[in-house]
Amino acid sequence: MSCYTLFIINKAGGLIYKRDFSADAPKLSVNDQLRLVSTFHSMHAIAGRLSPVDPASGIDHIETNTFQLFCYQSLTGLKFLITSPAHTSGSLEHLLFKTYQLYSDFVLKNPFYELDMPIHCSQFDTNLDKLILGK
Amino acid sequence: MQSGSSGRPKRLQPLVDRPLSKGKGEVTLSAFGFLFSEMVQKCQNKARTVQELESRLCNYGEHVGVRVLELLTHREKGLKRETRLIPLLSFLTGSVWKTLFGRPADALERHTQNEDEYMITDKDPITNKFVSVPSDMGAFSCAAFVAGIIQGMISGADFKGTVTAHPVSNDDGSSKTIYLIKFDAEVIAREKRFA
User: Fold this and answer.
1) Using N-to-C axis directions, what is the helix angle for A93-106 and A122-132, rounded to 10°?
2) How close, in Å, is residue B49 to chain A by CA atoms?
3) Distance (Å) from the C-alpha of residue A105 to the closest C-alpha of chain B?
């Protein structure tokens, strides 16, 4: 399946992981990435509050004419975002859920990882490659 | 003191009269992963260098090794203990590995030049399954814990030696771990006397 970029946001709204899976993904500077992600974090929270239905989930899916964005929020407040080309059929939410499983395996069980810090785990990267790029 | 079990239901028997259970035998991999991660973090807090971290982890493994030897000698082999080197190593790579990790070890070899060195190969030690070692730690492997288990077992069986874990990468990019067992000189001399 084709995807552009994966972002992982910690519960404070800070970016802890970003990975491009396609050469078409837009190149953003580090500052831009951080700003984008914290803006999304705030929008997600506002969307949850604006909803007339209580409890509401916040932003799940953004569809534009150039790309789509899917968001999965775990019970611990961690957000997984993935952007994909405009005409992706079906939801990529299952992919995000599997990414969450990989996160809980290769990041949380890693003794060298501190919670809420940027993720630098080689096993997480290799398994993510296998999941998203299929190799 | 009342002995035996006449008339009493089984669960009210005195503890020493009840049969020894074989135990559950299985633990979830995730539970082990989290517990081991905490163990490594605890060692890391106390250790100042990578070598110290490895030796602390090895120390933890030794505690396990001594007890596993006793337990498995009782359960599997009917209290018959190994007195010769090769049968001990076969027991280690066969029964012990199967009980601890669910499969026998991949290979057991003797070093070609040094007759006091043996090598056990394991393609995927469960201690390393979820761990990504940061690049500034060099050749550190959490399999030092398993090396400690082996060391505890051989010293409990009265074959003193040192065991170290070495990660090795294969030709096709995958990696395996080799446990190098170096026996003390007196152990080899004793083996020669028996042979």
Assistant:
1) 160
2) 14
3) 6
pLDDT band with cut points at 50, 70 and 90 for residue B9 = low
For residue B130, give the chain A residue with the closest CA.
A106
Burial A48-62 (b: 16+ CB within 10 A, else e): eeeeeeeeeebbeee
Give this prediction's pTM: 0.83
Whole-angstrom CA distances from A26 to A2, A18, A73, A85 are 14, 12, 24, 12
User: Looking at the predicted structure, is the pLDDT value of residue B4 above 80?
Assistant: no
Flag if A110 and B41 touch (Cβ within 8 Å). no
